[in-house]
Amino acid sequence: MFIKKTNPTYMWQNYVNALLGLCLIIISIAVASSIDTTLVWTFGGIGALTLILGLWGGSSESYEQEHRRA
């Protein structure tokens, strides 16, 4: 029998990654006029990727949690 449980103890780590991704996006927009355009796009892209993966990881359950035996 398979049960579906979540373990909120470790979920905060994914949300912290999402917050750091958001910070990278904000920083790249805030300093866009003073640094090179390539660096702005790099920081923005890495920040967006980190934000998306952090939110995705925080909202989905791990394989181990989904298929844990009772």
Written overview of the protein:
- The protein is mainly α and about 70 residues long.
- It has one domain.
- It has a two-stranded antiparallel sheet.
- The longest helix has 23 residues.
- About 10% of the residues are buried.
- The model has no long low-confidence stretch (mean pLDDT about 80).
Spatial strand sequence of the major β-sheet: 1-2
**What global shape is seen?**
elongated
Mean pLDDT: 81
Strand content: 5-15%
Short description:
By secondary structure, this protein is mainly alpha-helical.
Features:
3 helices, two-stranded antiparallel sheet, mainly alpha, 70 residues
Please give the structural blueprint.
Elements: E1 2-3, H1 12-30, H2 37-59, H3 63-66, E2 68-69
Antiparallel strand pairs: 1-2
Helix pairs in contact: 1-2
